[in-house]
Amino acid sequence: MGRQATGVDVGLRSARFLRGQYKGNTFQVKNFSVGTHGAGSLEQAWEATEVSFKPQAARVALTGRDVNIRYTRVPEVPDWQLRKLMRFEVEEVGDTAGASVASDFNLLPDVPEVEGEDIVLLAMAREPVMDAHLAGLASAGGSLDSFAPASLGLYNAWTHYGVVEDETVLLVNIGHENTDVAIVRGPDLLFARNLSGGSGLFDAAIAQRFGVGLEQAEQIKIQHATLMPGARYDNPNAEKASRCILGAAGQLTSLLQSAVLFCRSQIKVTSLKVDRVMLCGGGAGLAGLPEYLTKGMGMTVELFDPFRVVDASALSPEDADLLDEYKLESVVALGLATMGSAPEAYSVEVLPADLRRRREFLGGTIWLVASALLALCFLVYHGTDYAGRLDGTRATASRLNRQVRTASSTHMRTDELVAKGGENDKLKAIADDLHAIAGSGEQLARVMEALEGSLPRDFWVSEITSEFAFDSGLGVQRGAERPILRIEGRSREGADAPAVQYEGFVRALRARLPRMEIKETLSPTGAVFTIDLTAFGPPATTVPEVGEG
After folding, report:
1. For 401, how many CA atoms within 13 A lie in the half-sphere containing its CB?
2. How far is CA 427 from CA 244, 469, 537, in A?
3. CA-CA distances (angstroms) from residue 520 to 486, 489, 509, 533?
4. Exposure string (b/e) for 330-345, b if CB count within 10 Å is 16 or more?
5. What are 21-52's pLDDT values in tens digits?
6. How far apart are CA 98 and CA 96, in angstroms?
7. Residue 122: helix, strand or coil by DSSP?
8. Claim: this prediction has a pTM higher than 0.85
9. Which end of the chain, N or C, is less packed with Cβ atoms under 10 Å?
């Protein structure tokens, strides 16, 4: 069962908010809200929108001229190298656009016609348009999950709630100013894009022909216009309105045909052929549009209604009726909510740079800081403990030294000193222990100083322990246990070349601690490492020079 998420699709004519969660093989709608307006900007659209619930964990649709979706064919490279390639691509676009650009990418499913390469979908958006959405979302009491192209919401709605067969389908969401398209072969996405132009083309044609404003033209379109081939008209206005939108309908047909051609050129699959077209969005409700496009495009064109398999039983009767009335307009919002709720959904998550950095900090860097604080507390605790032990040992050593001086002054003869050899051995053992305890604290301090200057930024220390033990690999034999320090740590998920960073880290550690014996291991994945070291290993041996002759 997925988490609850909200799909948000705000345009200049209307705004849709749909909240729920993906459960089993369907989506359970918990809340739905829609608002209609005639705004001139995105900011005005948000100001005119009233949401009946708080849109938490919102996936917000991006469309129009401020969004750019590119397709790049790249060799099959590691993830870190792919991220660098995409970063260069985004920086180039940002320099050309002259504005801050946010982005995210994902690989398209494998295309059989393309061998030895991956096709990357790169989505980019101008940050000012996202700032407008963020301000509006905050005013509605909501919170952002991420931004995503509306065309990917359309794709997720189809793959989760459509009749997916072994065919190529062109999905079309016709808005007022823009049209979002996705081309799908079976369950696999081939192409997604937003196009300029939508049902506003029909309104503009009627407004010019009748000499009225756009709002009145829209009402004439709804009440009188039809594109049904061979339609009979009830009155002169119906015939006049229907004939004057034929040019706009031809523009829309050309727009969809050009999208298919552009898909072929982008993914380099020249043999691609579309079998069926599925329409949704407010513009798809124009009478006779599916039949007109069927004739113009030479293939079956139908309306896409995913809500036939969506569970809306949790809605109030009023909200359920509202959803049924605006079901064509709400397909993208449903797909975005599914994208945020279903773990397996295909997704890109576009975020402004500042917000992405904050989330990366909370998701990774803050844990490094917490680990460092934990290690510091560990060192303080054990340092205090060792200091107490050292003070006690020093007192014992002082007392024993007094005993030795008393014994030396009393027993002056050599044979008596020899007789006291057992006591001298005891003193030597105590002195060795004292040296080891004192050296353990110094060993710990030196290692912490070396870690501070050597640890890569993609690595962190999860645990440090020090104990009296033996390890033949470090030259400390059984029966002669000495303080051995163990460092356990991890590398950040997705770190660039963790094995190379680790090798450099170990070399730096050996250079900073030349007098210590070091034994290190790295897991096969490069995610976990362990380092054992001690300053109490056997002293380095020097081979004497052999003279000539």
Report:
1. 7
2. 110, 22, 22
3. 10, 11, 11, 8
4. bbbbbbbbbbbbbeeb
5. 999 889 999 999 999 988 889 999 999 999 99
6. 6
7. strand
8. no
9. C
* Candidate CATH numbers 3.30.1360.100, 3.40.50.720, 3.50.30.10, 3.40.190.10; the one for domain 362-534: 3.30.1360.100
Tokens of 234: 């009830």
Distance CA 14, CA 36 (A): 4
| Residue type for position 332 | V
Q: Could you give phi then psi for residue 46, rounded to 5 degrees?
A: -65, -40
pLDDT at 541: 44
Separation of alpha carbons 126 and 136, rounded Å: 16
Asked if CATH classification 3.90.1570 holds for the domain at 1-162+312-351, the reply, yes or no, is no
- Tens of pLDDT, residues 65-105: 889 999 998 998 898 999 999 998 888 876 665 668 899 99
Q: How far apart are CA 425 and CA 411, in angstroms?
A: 17
CATH for 163-303, options being 3.30.930.10, 3.30.420.40, 1.25.40.10, 3.40.190.10: 3.30.420.40
Bridge partners of 534?
A: 517
Domain boundaries, the chain: 1-162+312-351, 163-303, 362-534
Greater confidence (546 vs 240) lies with: 240
Report, as an integer, the average pLDDT of 511-523. 89
- Pairing, β 4-10 against β 14-23: antiparallel
> What share of the chain in percent tops pLDDT 70?
84
- Compute how many other C-beta atoms are within 10 angstroms of the C-beta atom of residue 299: 15
- Mean per-residue pLDDT, 230-238: 92
Q: Do domains 1-162+312-351 and 163-303 have the same CATH topology?
A: yes
- Which residues are CB-contacts of 468 (< 8 A; sequence separation ≥ 6)? 436, 481, 482, 483, 484
